[in-house]
Write a structure and sequence with these properties.
The complex is a heterodimer of chains A (166) and B (867). Chain A has helices at residues 25-40, 53-56, 82-100, 105-110, 112-122, 133-165, and strands at 2-9, 14-19, 49-51, 61-67, 70-76, 123-124, 127-128. Chain A is of the alpha+beta class and 166 residues long. Chain A is globular, with a radius of gyration of 18 Å. Classes of the chains: A alpha+beta (166), B mainly alpha (867). Chain A: Belongs to the adaptor complexes small subunit family.
Chain lengths: 166, 867
Amino acid sequence: MIKAVMMMNTQGKPRLAKFYNYMPVEKQQELIRGVFSVLCSRPENVSNFLEIDSLFGPDSRLVYKHYATLYFVLVFDGSENELAMLDLIQVPVETLDKCFSNVCELDIVFNYSKMHAVLDEIVFGGQVLETSSAEVMKAVEEISKLEAASNSISLVPKSVSGWRGR
Amino acid sequence: MSSSSTSIMDNLFQRSLEDLIKGFRLQLLGESNFISRALEEIRREIKVTDLSTKSTALHKLSYLAALHGVDMSWAAFHAVEVVSSPRFQHKRIGYEAITQSFHEQTSVLLLITNQVRKDLNSANEYEVSLALECLSRIGTHDLARDLTPEVFTLLGSSKAFVKKKAIGVVLRVFEKYPDAVKVCFKRLVENLESSDPQILSAVVGVFCELATRDPGSCLPLAPELYKVLVDSRNNWVLIKVLKIFAKLASVEPRLGKKVAEPICEHMRRTVAKSLVFECVRTVVSSLSDHEAAVKLAVAKIREFLVEDDPNLKYLGLNALSIVAPKHLWAVLENKEAVVKALSDEDPNVKLEALHLLMSMVNEDNVSEISRILMNYALKSDPFFCNEIIFSVLSACSRNAYEIIVDFDWYVSLLGEMARIPHCQRGEEIEHQLIDIGMRVRDARPQLVRVSWALLIDPALLGNLFLHPILSAAAWISGEYVEFCKNPYETVEVLLQPRTGLLPPSIRAVYIHSAFKVLIFCLRSYFSAEESTLSFSAQEFSSASSSMNAFTYESILNLVNVIELGLVPLSGTHDVEVQERTKNVLGFIGMIKQDLAEKLNLQDSETEVFRVTAFMEDVFSEELGPVSATAQDKVCVPGGLELKENLGDLEEICGEFLKPVDSVSYTDKISFSVSKLRIRDQQEASSSSSPPHEASSLLAEHRKRHGMYYLPSQKDDPDSNGTPNDYPLANELANEISPDPFNPKKKPNQSKQRPVVVKLEEGDESRNPPQAKSNIETVNDDESLSRAIQSALLVKNKGKEKDKSETNPNSGQQEKEESSRIEDHQNSEKKKKKKKKKNGERSSKHKSRGRNEVASASEQVIIPDYLL
């Protein structure tokens, strides 16, 4: 099972944080800080795995990848394979790259909702359900369309009729 | 009118999430200011009836909660409102908020049941997906129970997009509501034969989790899973199946033989490192008895170790450490790579290498490995340095210093560790120095030498972490002073002004040790005098008494040095230091007069001779190691009510009675027991009894609190001849004779291993047993596994029925299971060109019998072909 997915920049500012078991927000913030303090002390070109039992309890592993100004972090337990998890990080990153053509930190900052849509297609309740970025793209586009459609219906009565009604 | 217009104004001028994020980036206010302003806004907007405004507010709140740790539990009801909106966008925001913030105790949780059901039945697969995601994250017992029918329906969905998520949600539903297993299990199992890799991957993932919780319950599915293992070429699926088999093999060892070959096949075939690694891990952790498989796995590990990729190197070392306990040869084969990894720049790799290196330590190579490691410790960063020190300390002390032959060497190593600049393991080193002193008689001279070197090193006094080591060194120089080359210098070192840098508790040890040295010097001076006078071979003779030819002047000098060093301390604030000081000064006061007046001190009538002899007696008792379980060995005497009358104990002790954790508790008890024993023996041996008033007070106290004491006769089980299987540590130390030369062990060893006092039990029990936690989790999952087992029973019976209806010769129902398997075996056999026909026939034969037994006892049927 995947326990948590996080993205944070190299200053330690979280850009995305999802915990698959309920956790109070204070605890979440503590964990994010804890993970960052470990990550930022690691040199370049070393392995991407960390033993992280001290933060997430026994049988916890962490894999991370460093992209330009961002860390992408997955926390998982013994029923996942470390190298497969490392590959899995590539899936959302690839998808985002397709979504925003050359994704950068700003895209992620401003597209909070889309980030979640992408991630939710890949990891479902802590289980990996999709590993093809094409499939993820398809679903995310569909969701965007649905959202836009529901918005366009809403815009007309809300603004126009509302103003007239006065 | 006014309310609707404000809502419209709110809506028009509402800041969207994007505006909020932009505001953050401008950082005009401080961050916390900005958040509290935004929260104010949200609290206002979220109360508006318009769902668009409400949902935007909720969205912003979710964002703040996820990334800035803002509490959003207060908005739970609003999330329920938003989720009921007919618009997809609102729904998504609502579900997002719910999955993020709801938990078992959320009071409005039950309000969403109907909405979730509605969305699960929606024609729009994306709405279904939202509801499924929500259920998989926050599903409770009630939700799972109420929505099981919907989940069951969705398991049969024709859309893979929905179906895979329905499979995923089953895990949560089963976990919270085990009765759902009866409903959904069959459909779930059917998917093991799905040709869609997505579906297969999802269902294997679910079974992997189920197998982790209770391997036994998934055992009957072994044939289906085996088929997946052989047929699938999807790495994700294979990894999960391997994980399942690793779990199953732990409860059914016979499975190992069956799966070893296909796993090796994958190992040889695949190029995907993740799959190779999973195969390796499965083999080394669960199939470690299958030699060929292990050999192949170790070969693969070696490939990992020589890669440049630090990830592979790390995982390779990781796998080696799993294999190490059973196949040490695998580690030895890769020793060079392991040692090289010690200087890797990756802390993970270094640590892993260190653990591996420690796993191969034995009595032949311990000094070589320690030498290598000490060199690394000197040039490593503080963290790794201490990891190294700790590993060496714990490996060497394991099982009462089992692997140490040359204690002189080891004691010097301990001294060396103290000088490593980053060393922070003072307490452990302290413990070992003292422990060796007590256990290993032959190591004492070297201990005293090393202690001396530590005590005179001015650099150590300033290092906080090393103070415990100095404490041990001081204690050793006092306790084993007879091995000391120059007691005079020892006293000088113990009382040097710089000891002011030490904490009072350690200073007290210094002073007390100086006292012991003084007593020793006086005593050996007297005995030397005596022996020169009487020319009789005195019993009392220490190894160095001839060396330390004390003269009257040197004794006088010594006393003066001590007095000079201690007088300033008699006014310190710390009671412990003060008391020790006063004790020594008091003693000096007693003897000083005699010393100054008479030159012939050998007269046994003098005060000084008497007190010295008395103190000598006090100090002469040798300390030995005490078993941590010593207290348990004391049998409870008849008539002692341990559990009763403890009510008034509280009155007596009041608030001083605080719960202590078990470890320190036993430590304390054993310590006091040892003290008691020593005191008893002292009382017995030295005729000088305590003053009368004190003993009468003690007697009165005993009378008053008598019920808390053991009967005085039985105080020491040895004294009244009751059988006692627990040897006194001190006696043991005295009685043990030097080990007879043992040619079998170490013929080339020039030095014999000294005797190490070892208590059969209790030496290991310093660490409390920690195996308890497992039981609880088992209990948690018990209902689930029972449900799965009964579901499997039903499933198998159903199949039997099916077959018996279609099959005319249904008389051999018990063959059903084996025939089902045979089908598969046949196809497999074709691939393998009909090898080993005879062997399989015989195994089939065997299995039939077993099957009958299984069905007769109504147990879970374990498919036999795998066994």
